[in-house]
Structure to design on (188 residues):
């Protein structure tokens, strides 16, 4: 099962994914986490985000999505769960929210996901989390623009995500997420 976790920086995606991985592995399920962009591209991401070229940014993230798609294809039939820390949805959302006209057909040939989850949190909590990061970078600051946040939220809502609230009680968020995954897996 391929599950994508999307949401703004500081929403709790990565933390939730790590806890889910541990819990699924305790159930003897094989799990791989794939980040988009991968950690190997972190330096390039910083250069692209600092450049302020929306087109260059889109091309970089599209390339990351293609790499992620290849990794999904590699693991789809050999692990029980692929947990994606972002995928092409955030590339579409972040670039369209900033005004780029994105040809969504470019993503049609990429590997599909089974379940789309958007992690949302109180905006003040999210911003506090971003500010507390030791490696805060320029792309993190861009997520403080209220107009961009609103546009991105509208775009995510049009993409058919299940929304998971991650405001105050992480254990409750984890339980809710596991229930959604269990319910969805039962439908496959």
């Amino acid at each position: 099962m391929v599950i994508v976790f999307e949401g703004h920086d500081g929403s709790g995606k990565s933390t939730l994914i790590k806890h889910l991985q541990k819990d699924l592995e305790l159930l003897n399920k094989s799990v791989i986490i794939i980040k988009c962009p991968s950690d190997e591209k972190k330096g390039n991401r910083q250069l692209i985000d600092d450049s302020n070229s929306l087109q260059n940014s889109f091309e970089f993230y599209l390339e990351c999505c293609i790499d992620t798609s290849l990794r999904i294809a590699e693991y789809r039939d050999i692990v029980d769960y692929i947990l994606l820390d972002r995928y092409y949805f955030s590339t579409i959302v972040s670039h369209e929210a900033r005004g780029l006209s994105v040809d969504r057909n470019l993503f049609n040939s990429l590997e599909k996901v089974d379940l789309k989850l958007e992690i949302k949190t109180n905006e003040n909590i999210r911003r506090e989390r971003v500010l507390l990061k030791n490696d805060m970078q320029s792309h993190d600051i861009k997520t403080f623009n209220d107009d961009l946040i609103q546009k991105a939220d509208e775009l995510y809502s049009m993409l058919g995500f299940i929304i998971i609230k991650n405001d105050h009680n992480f254990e409750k968020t984890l339980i809710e997420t596991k229930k959604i995954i269990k319910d969805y897996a039962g439908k496959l």
In short: The chain has one domain: 2-179. The beta strands are 2-6, 31-35, 81-85, 115-120, 162-165. The CA atoms of residues 10 and 127 lie 7 Å apart. The radius of gyration is 16 Å.
